[in-house]
Amino acid sequence: MREYLLVLFTTAAVTYLLTGPVRKFAIAAGAMPPVRARDVHREPTPRLGGIAMFGGLCAGLLVASQLTHLGRLFIQSADVKALLSGAGIMWVLGVLDDKWGVDALVKLGGQMIAAGVMVWQGVTVITIPVPGFENVTVTPTQGMIISVTLVVVMVNAVNFIDGLDGLAAGMVCIAAGAFFLYSYRLWYGYGISDAAPAVLFSALLIGMCLGFLPHNLHPARIFMGDSGSMMLGLMLAVSAISITGRVDPDLITAQTGGSQTTAIHVLVPIYIPLLLPLTVIALPLADLLLAVVRRTWAGKSPFAADKQHLHHRLLEVGHSHSRAVLIMYFWAALIAFGAVAVSITNTARAVVLAFVGLCLVGIVVLLMPRFRPHAPRAVQAFVPPRYRKAGTPAEAEALAAASAETPAEIPAETPAMAELSAEDKELLGRFGTGASAVGHRENAS
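Predicted structure:
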């Protein structure tokens, strides 16, 4: 566990430290397209955050290669090499899209190439464990189709939810956390060494997201762009593929005292192919499917952009930006960790009751978009102003005066880059804005 934590924190630290310089580079390079009609942010924001994430990934892998136990994975398994090559291709494709824009079909072809390269290096589904039939062996062609499909679906699912500040990074972090717990339990609890690559990939994912989130939370100073979102989706898919079909149910049956019933319960997420990886991205996947159906029904291309994603609808009903993101976090964590809990505990009834109770809490929050909780007086100095409650008439009048600021007190023409630092403005003065470099392109998301 210590080696995994070291890799996680190294990846997070490098990603965090690289994001600031990458932001300045994105501004200088013009990777800052103008605000589009379907965007929820109001100011042009630099992209290319995936560059910092890729740097964190490389740093984490470099540290892992020098450790005693994790270093063996680089010799005994080809999964790490396959991950790095596939992520590299996806990252280059994303950088090109963030800077110049790439056609949706070309992007889809690039995603399939990245998945194909990983399959060629051995990251593929070999067998599928099915209850009552043990391991069902698939042909190389079938394994390739399943693996490539899983990569493409996860990549686009993550890309589809990258619409609010901190949403994609936070949800992928939650998914990776759930998958880390599950795969680590298989590796450490049952001695299944084939689960070790999935544990490493999940730790890397968590570190990349945690390092990037401080820069990406609302109001975001930089977006990950397709260079980040597609890479995160690919890594989620690789984590799933690297463990699917490689866990022998008979091994766990022997370690559970020969009880087939107990073994089946433990292997619930494995017996149903790819169940756990799909549950951890259930919301992005549902959003993707709804978008495809919605656009096709309207006679549009499935890749046509719109403003009807789940997070857009939360804003429409009255939730604030931050609350909409937290609601998505809540449901993602509930589904992902609920699936993990089912595979861990034998008290399924307690898990179901807890799940139902938390669902009711989530529904209540969804139906109260205008509710604004107030923090206790003791902590009001540490929370945002919107959560502070004026206790005296004087405080209420001061709060009302602050919120009713007259237009005359605001500059008539606020620069589009008003929130940028002096150094960033100097860079813009020398290189120009992203609007002139990129133009009014529309990316499918």
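Summary: Residues 403-418, 433-445 have pLDDT under 50 and may be disordered.
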